[in-house]
Amino acid sequence: xxxxxxxxxxxxxxxxxxxxxxxxxxxxxxxxxxxxxxxxxxxxxxxxxxxxxxxxxxxxxxxxxxxxxxxxxxxxxxxxxxxxxxxxxxxxxxxxxxxxxxxxxxxxxxxxxxxxxxxxxxxxxxxxxxxxxxxxxxxxxxxxxxxxxxxxxxxxxxxxxxxxxxxxxxxxxxxxxxxxxxxxxxxxxxxxxxxxxxxxxxxxxxxxxxxxxxxxxxxxxxxxxxxxxxxxxxxxxxxxxxxxxxxxxxxxxxxxxxxxxxxxxxxxxxxxxxxxxxxxxxxxxxxxxxxxxxxxxxxxxxxxxxxxxxxxxxxxxxxxxxxxxxxxxxxxxxxxxxxxxxxxxxxxxxxxxxxxxxxxxxxxxxxxxxxxxxxxxxxxxxxxxxxxxxxxxxxxxxxxxxxxxxxxxxxxxxxxxxxxxxxxxxxxxxxxxxxxxxxxxxxxxxxxxxxxxxxxxxxxxxxxxxxxxxxxxxxxxxxxxxxxxxxxxxxxxxxxxxxx
Length: 500
Hints:
With about 500 residues, this protein is an all-alpha fold. The chain has helices spanning about 15-50, 50-85, 90-95, 100-120, 130-155, 160-165, 170, 175-205, 205-235, 240-250, 250-275, 285-310, 330-335, 340, 345-355, 375-380, 385-395, 410-415, 420-430, 430-435, 445-460, 475-500, and strands at about 315, 320, 360, 360-365, 365-370, 370-375. Helix content is about 70%, strand content about 5%.
């Protein structure tokens, strides 16, 4: 609430977060699973003195570093940038609650990056034992980073006992932690094997080497698919009730849930029938591409659903999607004092641009200072100013989930197309009862009038030829009811006489 809003046209900021997050996890999980692949396979190649395999692993390490360190780092920073702008209150809460966890994760991240560069750039210049140690240091540091981040992101879906205890460990070991850790570890193993298949199918010219890569990468992939399904089942079992209902009430999410299990199950079957039972399939780049695409679809869809089912919250039962703490005292403060008055940025905006609605303010050049916003004066503004302030209310209260214009994601205007102003005004008062995935209205009745003015200004007109029927007056409704009651009574008497 006490942060300036950030509007992303058409797709909205949450959808931008989801897009960047999906791209990031598809690479970040390869960074974890690929680390174990390189550490394990380098150990095997040194032990068997397989120089050809070592040469291939060096080429794969270069591909791995470019994709995970460069692209992964850029998208990781992109996530922080977007969540800080789109969900600043939730981001502040996560930083304050888990500052020890974030600091620890950064220590392991620095260790991970250092080990990765030493492992690759000193290839052939280190003793085998030291080189192998660098690979394992990287692999375990990357996995620990995954565990730490999983505990924090899982907290957003289900804080568990944190609301009562308010401690780091109560928030970290939440009901979603173990299921998501299993699923993400499985995703790391599965995706890394699929990336290895693709890289080997394109770069390996030796049939022996291709078969070796295929043979040694299939079992981790099968294990990863099983862990994803087991972790996914635990994730569903430990979902809060609101998240379950949000998932089943959205047709698209139902389709996506089915897509996760279909894609993951299909990858498992193809891995078992192909590389596991009939080695040689990955010599075809087309098969490797298809496998990787299916794996990305399944895992990427699961990440999208994780982002989507938290409504109406950003952090379940703690922060609403409109950046307001989900506490009755906070809601009452905003409803009594005003949503515009209750936020630092909104309050200053009104003082600067509409000083005529501020009472007890000292007038100064460019606006006013001090005083408070008079609720009644808001309604005395000219229509164009009422709409403008209603737009401000929309940006702070609704913009995190709704675009404005037709064609945007969950655009507010088309959702109320054809509605009367009375219907829109009633919806504002009953947001959370009309649709449980929306937060409650957090402003005053006067501010609700301004928001209604704005929503009516962006609602598309009713289509031609679809004019509403005349509204029935109460007297006419009562007369029709009496007439229907009389006809029903006569019909009952006639049926009774026929039966006799």
